[in-house]
C-alpha cells in the first residue's frame, strides 16, 4: 500500500475526536487505509449478511464485541447502529476509539448528523490523486494513459487489466449497491443511463434531455443522478452564484470522479481511440475538476468549486472560490502552449472584475511547460498537483 495524502489528518483527528468517519466510493482504499493506520483496533465489516443481521437485531450485543472500540466497515448498511454507538461514545468519549467507514455519501452523512453530530470527524477518501498515483512504479506517463487507466488503487496495486477491472466494478455497483440504494428494477436501462451520463460528462445536466434519451421520466432521471452522487460515481458542479449583471446559466454541470470509468462506458480502450474521440476535451476537463476535488478532500477541505457560463456564451470550466478572490480555470486538451488557451478565462475575469470580484485567470492544458504570462498562467496537467492555489 502506498501512503495516502489524507492519512496524517485521520491520525490527528483520532487524537482529539471520539470517532473518525471516512466516506468515499467503493474500492477507493478506505478499509486498507484504516486497518493500516489503526492496526491494533478490532475490525468488523457490515458487508457480511450475518454481521448485518447481528447488528440490526442486537445492536448492543454487536457493539459489546468491541469494548475498547474498533473499526466498523460499511456502517451505512445498518444506520440504526449509530444511535446505539452514540451512547457508547457518551459513556466513554476517549479520543480515537471508533473508526467508521462508509461508501454512501448522503445517506451516511444524514445518519451521522442525526446520531453522531459533534462526536465524529468526517473525511472523504476519493480515488487516487495524481500525487498519489506517482508513488506507484507503474504510473501512467501520458495524459491519454492517465485518462484511460483512471485512479482506483487496485488497478495500480495489482497491475490489473483496466477493462476487466472496470467491467467487474460496474457490474458489482449495478447489481449490489444500486439495488440497496433505490428500487431500480430495470438494471439494463440503468446501465444505459450510466452510458448516457458518461457521454455528458463536463456538460450541462439537462434532466429533461437525459430522461428523453433514456426513455425514462424526468423524476426518475433525477433520482438516478442522486444515486450516482450518493455512491460517489458522479457529482454536480454548480454555477457561480454572484451578484453579476449577467444572465447566468443556472443548470449544474455533470462530472464523474474517475475518467477510467467514463472511458470504459464509452468503449474507449486505447490512447489512440481517446486521442481522436470527440469527447476527449470533455473527459480531460472532468479529469482536471476531479483532480482538484481530490486534492481538496485530501486536505480535509470543502472544494467551493463552481463554473461560469452566461447567456452570451462566455464561460469558464471551473471557478475556485476563495474569500479574497476567484481563480478562473479553463481546461484545454492541447499540448501546445498558446495565448489562445487562456482567452475564455480572461473574458470571464473581465466580467468578474467589473463586478468588483478579484480574480486570477489560469489555463490547464495537456502540454508540459509552465508559462506565467502577464495576464495569467498556463499550467500543464503533469504539474497540477504541485500548484499552490493560494498563489498559482
Can you tell me about this structure?
There is one protein chain. By secondary structure, the protein is α/β, with parallel strands linked by helices. Among the domains are: 7-124, Rossmann fold (3-Layer(aba) Sandwich); 130-238 and 253-278, no CATH class. The protein has helices spanning 7-13, 30-37, 49-57, 59-64, 81-91, 105-115, 130-133, 143-149, 153-157, 162-181, 187-198, 207-214, 218-230, 259-265, 271-276, 280-298, 343-354, and strands at residues 19-23, 42-45, 70-73, 98-102, 120-124, 203-204, 234-237, 253-256, 305-309, 315-321, 326-332, 359-365, 371-372, 377-380. Strands 9-10-11-12-14-13 form a six-stranded mixed sheet. Strand 3 (70-73), helix 5 (81-91) and strand 4 (98-102) form a beta-alpha-beta unit. The radius of gyration is 22 Å and the shape is globular.
Tell me about the largest β-sheet. 6 strands, mixed
How do the strands line up in the largest sheet? 9-10-11-12-14-13
**SS element count, helices:** 17
Q: Helicity, in percent? A: 40-55%
Overall pLDDT confidence:
91
Shape: globular
Q: End-to-end span in angstroms?
A: 31 Å
Rg from alpha-carbon coordinates: 22 Å
What proportion of the residues form beta strands (DSSP E)?
Answer: 15-25%
Which structural category do the helix and sheet elements fall into? alpha/beta
The stretches of 5 or more residues where confidence is low (pLDDT under 50) are none
Tell me how many strands there are: 14
